[in-house]
Amino acid sequence: MKFAYLIEPPFNYVDNTGHVTGSDVELARHVFAELGAADFEPVETEFAELLPGLGDGRWRMTTGLFGTDERRKSARFSRPIWALPDGLLVAKSNPLGLSGYQSVADNPNARLAVIRDQFQHRSAVEFGVDENRIMIFETYKEAAKAVREGRADAYASVGMAHTGFIVQNAEWPIELILVPPNEKPPAFGSFAFWLEETELLREVDAVLSQYLGTEAHRKMVGKFGFSDQEVDLVAAFEG
User: Fold this and answer.
1) If you ran DSSP here, which 8-state letter would residue 138 be given?
2) Of 90, 116, 117, which is closest to residue 101 (Cα–Cα)?
3) What are the C-alpha distances in Å from 89 to residues 70, 140, 158, 177?
4) Nearest to 230 by CA among 173, 183, 186, 178
5) Are 134 and 148 in a shared domain?
6) Domain region containing 36
7) CATH number for the domain harbouring residue 112
8) Do 62 and 53 meet the contact criterion of CB atoms below 8 Å apart?
């Protein structure tokens, strides 16, 4: 049972022992264990390959993604597994005083890093960030490194991903600025499946419905920095 993931702490990463872990990986492990799948296999890939890999059979489920209308043309999505605000990764002390997408758009000198095709790229454009000031990268670490080296002033991604990266790279002079909810509400993320995987999707959703919000679930995701309030959002989701 192959599961596609990205190196994006705290959702997915490889620990010091070489073990693939993270909130999405451990949730996927639990789901497939409940379904009786003994051959769970996480497969690292790049963001742009996640959905194509479902279509050509390289894996059967992906790490959590935002279920946009465009993505629903080529994939099905489980019930939400997390609800998160976006965030900006900036240099320590936030030298440009950035507070969200609008502040980046309003500052003609602010350069914004994004990952190719991720939802935050679209959000930046919608808020009016000039495309000439948007730097596109293929991996999280490349974008974060651009901020560290001063080539970019901020990197827009999910706030929780920045939190995990900062914890794992405490020596880097970087910090997180959360995008305020009145600017952009938190977004829900879900496991993705190929369009024809209706039975697997049904089985996964059944396990998630029983597990999300339980004490076991809260304890598991709490290790990766998720609060009870964030868990409550997905546990109460009605669809």
Assistant:
1) S
2) 90
3) 27, 11, 10, 6
4) 186
5) yes
6) 2-83+186-235
7) 3.40.190.10
8) yes
Overall size of the chain counted in residues: 239
| Apex 148 CA angle, 146 and 154, nearest 5 | 65
Q: Residues 4-13: pLDDT tens digits?
A: 999 998 899 9
Indicate if 17 and 29 belong to the same structural domain.
Answer: yes
Do 95 and 42 have their domain in common?
Answer: no
Q: Is the pLDDT of residue 238 over 80?
A: no
Q: What distance in Å separates the CA atoms of residue 96 and residue 85, rounded to the nearest whole number?
A: 21
Q: Domain boundary at 178, 209, 225, which?
A: 178
Q: Average pLDDT of 151-173? A: 92
Q: pLDDT tens digit string along 35-88? A: 999 899 999 999 999 999 999 999 999 999 999 999 999 999 999 999 888 999
Same domain, 90 and 145: yes
What's the pTM?
0.69
97: DSSP letter: -
Number of structural domains, the chain? 2
DSSP SS3 for 188: strand
